[in-house]
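Practice problem: DUF7847 domain-containing protein
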Amino acid sequence: MTTGPDAPGTDPADDAGPDATEHPTDTAPGPPGGPPGGATSEELRVGAALGGAASRLVRPVGAALLAAYLFVGFAGTVATTSLFAAVVPRIRAVVLANSAATAADLPPADPSPLAVGLEPTTAVGLVLVTALLAETVHVVAVRVFVGDARSLPDRALADLRARALVSYIANSLALIAVFAGLFALVLPGVFLAVAFYLVRAVVAVEGAGVVPALRRSWRLVAGHRLRVLTVLLLVVLLRQLPTLPGSVVAETPLPGAVGASLGVVLGAVVTAFATAVAARVYVQLAGMEAAARETGDTDEAAGGEAAADEAAEEPLGALSPEEIDEQFGGR
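Answer key — structure tokens:
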């Protein structure tokens, strides 16, 4: 029997400390009265999700995905900034021609150093293409990070275009709902952001459709919302990091393109890490649900017989951690 940090299917970052039960291939006995195999626990382990994500990102497959995120990051930034550079001057001209505002009131905005000269329709098309390309990378990344990420899973590229399109639509609807909630009373938006946190993972791993993915994410997160909110807040804080290089470079003689490029690079790293974290959260919550189905454990206070019936009914496409590892554990 092979042991040690380099043994297949083990990961020191996953197995160390109290968060060891996060890894789907762990077979250590669980706590008395807990789920069999120790693969799951009653609470989402935030530290295990963060540590598991970081350890997977530095592996060769994770590095390859990071390169893909860099590509779509630069492509998306060029497309988006080019769209703004093409549209904003036209909007400014219309406002000046149809209002009492003067040119001094609306000074022209400096275009991003990464913007290129494009017609608005071309820029819009490029934005859509890069958005779908980025969603494709997200789907592949989730399928890699739900496993051990030591090699590319056989199913990583299966049905990719359809899954990416479904994921893009589902996440777009979720984002619209979140922004509507934030605009209304803030708290509903935060609640919806937590509830739909796992939409992409559900689509990528389980092959769910748009509405089933929204419902499935809502169900997986239920009972763990505060811990998922903690994860979301950490991710939101990390997403502020890409804005720092531009501010720092602005105080130096370096060209603005340097700061913008560094921001894209840092943004790609943060995005890849955030995707990995979501994948690891999904594995934990899917494992808890699978264990609850096996033991028939339900929260009677949350819904009595209705909750028991719902927990006993296995969702379409639902996978246990062992099944996830079997399908996405690498070659």
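Discussion: The first helix runs from residue 12 to 15. Students who identified this feature from the tokens alone can consider the problem solved.
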